[in-house]
Amino acid sequence: MVPKSSALFLTLFICCFTQEVGAQVSLAMEDVVEVYKGDTAIIQCQYSFAQHPNMVMVQWFVRGPGGRRVRISYSDLTMQKVDENTTYTDRISIVGYPNGENLTIVDATLSDEREFFCQVNGLAAGTGEGRTNLKVFNPPEPPIVEAVYSGVSTTNPLPSKVATCETREGFPKPNITWYRNHQPLDPKNGQVNVVTLVTKGPSGLYTVESELQYKVAREDEESVFSCEVSYHVPGAIRTAESRGVNVTVHYPTLNVEMWRDSPMGLVKEGDTVEIRCQGDGNPPPTFTFSREQELDVGLEAEGNLLLLKDVTRRDSGVYKCQTLDLDSEDSDVGASLQLAVNYLDPAVVIPKDSEIMLKGESLTATCNALSSLETSTVWFKDGVEIRRGHVLQLQDASFDTAGRYECEVTVPTIPGLHTSGSVHIIVHGAPELRDVEREVPMMERVGKWLNLTCEARGFPRPVITWNVTGSPNSREVLKKETEDVVQSVLTLKVTMDTVAMCSATNVMGADTKNFTITSIPIVTPTARKDAVDNSGVMIVIIIISLLLIAILGSVLYFLHKKGKLPCGRSGKQEITKETTNKDNIVVEMKAEKTEKTEKTVLLKGVNGNNKPPSDQ
Ligand SMILES: *[C@@H]1O[C@H](CO)[C@@H](O)[C@H](O)[C@H]1NC(C)=O
Ligand SMILES: *[C@@H]1O[C@H](CO)[C@@H](O)[C@H](O)[C@H]1NC(C)=O
Ligand SMILES: *[C@@H]1O[C@H](CO)[C@@H](O)[C@H](O)[C@H]1NC(C)=O
Ligand SMILES: *[C@@H]1O[C@H](CO)[C@@H](O)[C@H](O)[C@H]1NC(C)=O
Ligand SMILES: *[C@@H]1O[C@H](CO)[C@@H](O)[C@H](O)[C@H]1NC(C)=O
Ligand SMILES: *[C@@H]1O[C@H](CO)[C@@H](O)[C@H](O)[C@H]1NC(C)=O
Ligand SMILES: *[C@@H]1O[C@H](CO)[C@@H](O)[C@H](O)[C@H]1NC(C)=O
Which PANTHER family does this one have (predicted)? Predict the structure, then answer.
């Protein structure tokens, strides 16, 4: 039945085709229908006749292998069927409606991308045919970019492989574009090459691999490369961008920097010095270190670090580092650095160790330390700063001048660099007693114990001797000696008037000091009574004397009245006698005075008797 119909159709087709000039039927079909793989595609075929046809046949064809047309469905007023044994038998259906038909293809495949023809035959009313291109799309997987792991060298004269990008299973064939820092990279001779490999899988999907060859420059270290895939979808073009990748760029060292890492500031002997070299190449170059004085002798270094431990002034000089690039051009790059190791030698003090001066002498001491830098010297005595400068003048030496003088030499520009020295000054001289008074008068009661202190200074250290004249009971109870001072305490029991002479002597001379002790005798309570009685007697004597003078005066007056007393020389003599008498009285008054004094002292003693005289 089908072949029959086909034959009929063929004849009708030819008939109508010939009549087409009359064009009584017109068809409306979309040029292109686009659909995702797996989706359902609907191809519409609408027609209209100029004159109403008695019958209408609609047949659908596809372009088969070898360009041959294959019918896939047939319908007329009475029937509607899908042709058997075609590739579409199971996947198509026809929906007819007045003046039109829809061909529905389910589960679109890549092979459906072809022309579909719709042929309408109205016999006498006319015949027409239209076509629609079915396009099937499959978006590819997102692109995967991969940068080369090994570094890319800038010295390569040709573009080098930098990255690859792959997108899988796309239809139709997607395109890959390369970007550098989000700017598209267009293939350019000698600069950018893109090598694309397209493979079509068994399913008909395309996998596109793209390799970017690029002539890297130093700044590409920072560049980010990415690829973008663009693909068609129904009605549009979509793009998908890959992640960005970095490329390790290798470039030769052009400049080398050399610097001292530590210590900061000036270098001194004993320091550990760290010198570093760094080149601007990548990978970082390795270096050889040497000294300018002996360039052929390599110094041991750890990578780019030269470590000089415990440096001395002999380590001063110019240091060099040189790249050790085996594969690079013959032009070695290097840098140099001047190292100055500062020093401070031990201080030299003149005079050395110790020096003897005579009292009153003068001396100039110096303290010097050799240094590579300016130094500052300070003199100390007993920890107290006494002078700044390296010269110390000691004038008019006294015992106070003696002692240990220390000088400290520092380098102000390098804290921690210092040295010191010292000199011991000894002042020779005759002893000098500590107290100014050389005569010490004292009044002490008999029986009292006294401590007499004598302190002398001198060098060589004086010897103190005591010479006690008087009280026999004495001894030295304390003796303290330092380098140039000696102190002696003599304890003495006062028994009589005593002179204790302290003399300090050394080879240079002597000095003495006298303690003159006047003893006060002990007064017993009976002795006191006697003293009171005595004064009573004295008063009586004085009264009697006054009475006698009064009597004598009245007698003389009486004689004078009687005229028995001559008024010549003899009278004068009498007066002289009188005077003599008077003198006697005066003497007696004096004696009284003395006794009074004694009494006062005694009273004092009585007052002092609050604590009984238990000294002995
Ligand atoms: C379809 O093809 C098969 C073999 O491929 C055949 O046996 C069958 O008869 C055919 N059917 C029709 C209707 O032509
Ligand atoms: C035919 O297909 C068109 C477009 O896909 C649609 O709008 C229309 O409704 C369909 N007609 C029928 C009768 O299915
Ligand atoms: C891919 O590139 C070709 C050639 O430049 C172009 O014709 C095509 O439209 C591109 N396809 C996409 C999806 O951009
Ligand atoms: C690339 O390298 C630069 C510098 O090394 C870095 O800042 C940046 O984050 C890197 N980017 C990527 C995508 O790795
Ligand atoms: C101390 O007395 C002695 C005689 O006893 C005398 O020679 C000496 O000069 C006196 N010393 C002083 C400092 O007065
Ligand atoms: C005298 O000195 C000695 C020793 O320092 C001391 O033991 C004693 O008490 C002192 N005597 C007097 C009366 O100060
Ligand atoms: C002590 O002094 C007296 C009088 O000054 C003197 O005669 C005597 O020799 C002296 N004794 C000593 C041991 O110096």
Answer: CELL SURFACE GLYCOPROTEIN MUC18, CELL SURFACE GLYCOPROTEIN MUC18-RELATED
Q: Could you tell me if the CB of 451 is within 6 A of ligand 6?
A: yes
Look up residue 21 and give its two tokens.
């000039």
Residue 437's pLDDT is 80
- Tell me the residue ranges of DSSP E strands in 29-188: 32-36, 41-49, 57-63, 69-75, 80-82, 92-97, 100-105, 115-121, 127-137, 144-147, 152-153, 160-170, 175-180, 183-185
Angle between helices 525-562 and 569-608 (to 10 degrees): 160
Sign of the Cα pseudo-torsion (227, 233, 238, 244, in order): negative
Averaged pLDDT for residues 155-169: 93
Choice between 11 and 464, residue whose per-residue pLDDT is larger:
464
C-beta 85 within 6 A of ligand 1: yes
Measured from the CA of 513, which atom of ligand 5 is nearest?
A: 13
Q: Which ligand is nearest to the CA of 175?
A: 3
Cβ neighbours of 389 (radius 10 Å): 13
- Pocket-forming residues, ligand 5, beta carbon under 6 Å: 438-439, 499, 501, 512-514
115 lines ligand 4 (CB under 6 A): no
57-96: pLDDT as tens digits: 999 999 887 888 999 999 988 888 999 989 899 999 999 8
Q: Is the peptide bond before 415 cis (omega within 30 degrees of 0)?
A: no
Interior angle at CA 286, CA 283 and CA 289, nearest 5: 155
Kindly report the average pLDDT of the chain as a whole number.
83
Kindly report whether the global pTM for this prediction surpasses the value 0.90.
Answer: no
Contact in structure between 284 and 276 (CB atoms under 8 Å): no
- Label residue 396 left, alpha or beta by phi (over 0 means left) and psi (-120 to 50 means alpha): left
Nearest residue CA, atom 2 of ligand 7? 467
CB neighbourhood size of 443 (10 A) = 12
Domains in the chain, ordered, with CATH?
4-137 (2.60.40.10), 144-250 (2.60.40.10), 256-342 (2.60.40.10), 348-430 (2.60.40.10), 434-520 (2.60.40.10), 543-615 (no CATH)
Going by alpha carbons, the residue nearest to atom 1 of ligand 5 is 514
Query: Which residue, judged by its Cα, is nearest atom 14 of ligand 7?
Result: 467
Total H helices, total E strands in the chain: 3, 45
pLDDT tens digits, one per residue of 305-348: 999 999 999 999 999 998 876 555 556 788 999 999 999 999 99
The pLDDT tens digits of the residues spanning 439-449 come to 889 999 998 99
Give the ligand with the smallest distance to the CA of 85: 1
219 Cβ below 6 A of ligand 4: no
User: 230 CB less than 6 Å from ligand 3?
Assistant: yes
The pick from 146, 162, 219, 222 for probing ligand 4's pocket by mutation, whose C-beta has the most ligand atoms within 8 angstroms, reads: 222
Ligand 2 centre distance from Cα of residue 34 (Å) = 15
**Atom 1 of ligand 7, nearest CA residue:** 467
The ligand that comes nearest to the alpha carbon of residue 82 is: 1
